Amino acid sequence: MSGNRKEENRDDDIEIVFRNINVSIEGKHILKNVTGVARPGEVLGVLGPSDSGKSVLLATLAGHRLPYIGDVLVGGVPLEQARGEVAYVEKSDYLLPSLTLRETLEEPTSCMDFKEGLDLLKTLKHYAEKAGKVLVISLAASPSSFYTLCSRCLFLYKGHIAYYGNSREIRHFLSKIDLPPIDGYHPADYLLELLNHETMDDALPIQETIVQTTYQLRKEPGWKTETLLNKYPVTLYTNKNLNFKPYHQNGNSHDADDEENTITDNDGTH
User: Which are the contacts of 178, defined by CB distance < 8 A and separation ≥ 6?
Assistant: First the structure.
């Protein structure tokens, strides 16, 4: 569908739900039970350090990365049956194509100055709200005003979810684990600083605390409501013709309530 759909044809009941997404590339476990939802009329920002899995997640949601384990549903329909409704704009693309019903954009503000990037994000946010589009974008380290334009933020660290929710709630999340933002830092900037292993010598214990806290939050009833985990039947897509098995611990298959206790650089698929 083109970006010129009339407002009365909005698809406000159609969202992209992704549940327990696992991706392995060349023996390295890239995405580890990543879950979330991108709603129509909203912008989901995907953030994290380099090699955290941002690009792989966007490519997976657009149907460009196979195989994967988990569910990607477009309005309740498995992604494999709705690929025509999803477009993926890679970082190397300089011109945006006509936007379809749902769009994933990889670092759209890279190589732009502050004003250009801010204007682009404002335009995308307005477009999503007016036309009922679903937009998922990845952002590298950016000015704090960029984060506030995202309806929700998904932070990744080594393929794990480090945070999922409204950017305004990041301060409360960090304070809950005794890591309140330093004065002068936007909470999203500070969270990225904590997750960036190249900038802090003692970062690994902090990063592990952040990730494990988020996994504990995933067990709470509010998480399942927020991410629409129970709205649609489980399909658990996997391409059985390819040599790819679900990540597991101690011989047991993985689910949202069974996560690793230790974060490692290279978690191979077992």
Answer: none
The number of beta carbons lying within 10 Å of the beta carbon of residue 157 is 26
SS3 assignment, position 34: strand
Q: Could you tell me where the beta strands, DSSP code E, fall in 11-92?
A: 16-25, 28-38, 42-47, 69-74, 77-78, 86-89
Q: How many CB atoms lie within 10 A of CB 8?
A: 5
Q: How many domains does the chain have?
A: 1
- Based on its alpha-carbon atoms, the radius of gyration of the chain, rounded to whole angstroms, reads 18
Q: How far apart are CA 233 and CA 229, in angstroms?
A: 9
Residue 90 falls within a domain, yes or no?
A: yes
Which residues lie closer than 8 Å to 103 by C-beta, 6 or more apart? 86, 87, 88, 89, 133, 134, 135, 136
Residue 168 lies in a domain: yes
pTM of the model: 0.76
Would residue 160 count as lying in a domain? yes
Asked if residue 125 belongs to a domain, the reply is yes
CA–CA dist 248, 70 (Å, integer): 13
In a structure prediction context, what are the per-residue pLDDT tens digits for the chain, which is 270 residues long?
223 334 444 556 688 999 999 999 999 999 999 999 999 998 899 999 888 999 899 989 988 877 889 999 988 888 888 877 777 776 544 444 444 444 555 555 455 555 776 777 788 888 788 888 888 888 876 666 677 788 899 999 999 999 999 888 999 999 999 999 988 888 998 999 899 866 555 555 789 999 999 999 888 887 777 777 777 776 655 443 333 333 333 333 334 444 443 444 444 433
Q: Which of 46, 44, 41, 43 is nearest to 13 (CA)?
A: 41
Q: Which residues span the domain enclosing 82?
A: 14-253
